[in-house]
Amino acid sequence: MRLRRALSIGVAAVAAATAVLAGPTAAQAVTAVTLANTISLSNCSASLVRYPTSVSTDQALMLTNGHCYEGGFLDAGEVLQNVSSSRTGGLLNSAGTRLGTVRADRVLYATMTGTDVTLYRLTATYATLSTRYGATPLTISASHPVAGTTIAIPSGYWKQIWNCKIDSFVSTLREDEWTWHDSVRYDPDCDTIGGTSGSPIVDETSGEVVGINNTGNESGEMCTLDNPCEVADDGTTTAYEGQSYGQETYWFTTCLDSSRNIDLTISGCLLTKP
């Protein structure tokens, strides 16, 4: 996972009142992805995001990795829901300039099992962040990403953007004690580094978040910390030095109730249950 290395090396405006937040139009989405609405954490990257059905009066959401959780790495099988938090981050504009500080009041969901995500609820609403900073959240796609898609990975930590394509999907990816499923495999152009953990994977055509960057094999070792391996159906493991990966985020949209709360009991919910 990219956290350890990081520690060592250091579009539309929000709609009125209760209207559904507008996502980017096709014309807007084909413009280059910038650092706008990315967030710099103390040890990782993050982003300001919304569900497809979010409204402007909702408290805003901040997305990063499970292994970026302020309490440290989560054990295999561990799931956090509705846990108090005071995590802060620096909200950036398109040029990577810090606009101000955003603060979380709750971890809505976090795990390092099945996937590697932490989703925070911020104290401010989308409307407030729009008024204060002109911030427009990135939309979490409700669809499974597609191989061959051109993507951008903007890192709030490094204020840098990686551009490549989705190469394929890995049914089982293992790193140390953690196992992830249906992981996103990048082509070689996205050679992400420490500190890029938690960066959104943005579809450059739609402008939507289709995943979250989380790990890469740094030294060619097999299934060890910072060296994930791909696991075949017969259990055979293969490691590719330098290969980077991400986790899908449409899973969140399979677990939302009518009030946009995460409900792990909903039929078809893909998020890991406790």
Give the tags.
Thrombin, subunit H; six-stranded antiparallel beta barrel; mainly beta; 274 residues; single chain; 16 strands; 3 helices
Structure description:
This protein has two domains: 2-25 and 35-140 and 251-255, Beta Barrel (Thrombin, subunit H); 150-250, Beta Barrel (Thrombin, subunit H). The two termini are 22 Å apart. Residues 6-19 and 25-29 have low confidence and may be disordered. The longest helix is centred in the middle third of the chain and has 8 residues, at 126-133. It has helices at residues 2-8, 26-29, 126-133, and strands at residues 38-40, 45-50, 59-64, 79-84, 88-92, 98-111, 117-125, 138-139, 150-155, 160-175, 178-186, 200-203, 209-216, 229-231, 237-238, 244-248. It is globular and about 50 Å long. Helices cover 7% and strands 38% of the residues. It is mainly beta and 274 residues long. It has three helices and 16 strands.
Give the class from helix and strand content and strand pairing.
mainly beta
Question: Total number of helical segments?
Answer: 3
Approximately how much beta-strand content do the residues carry?
A: 35-45%
- Low-pLDDT segments, ≥5 res: 6-19, 25-29
Largest sheet: 6 strands, antiparallel, barrel
Number of domains: 2
The coarse overall form would be: globular
Could you estimate the helical fraction of the residues in percent?
under 10%
The whole-number mean of residue pLDDT values reads 92
Radius of gyration of CA atoms, rounded to a whole number: 17 Å
Strand order of the largest sheet: 1-2-3-7-6-5
Oligomer: single chain
CATH architecture term of the largest domain: Beta Barrel
Number of β-strand runs: 16
CATH topology of the largest domain: Thrombin, subunit H
Look at the structure and give the CATH class of the largest domain.
Mainly Beta
First-to-last CA distance: 22 Å
Give the helices and strands as they follow along the chain.
Answer: HHEEEEEEEHEEEEEEEEE
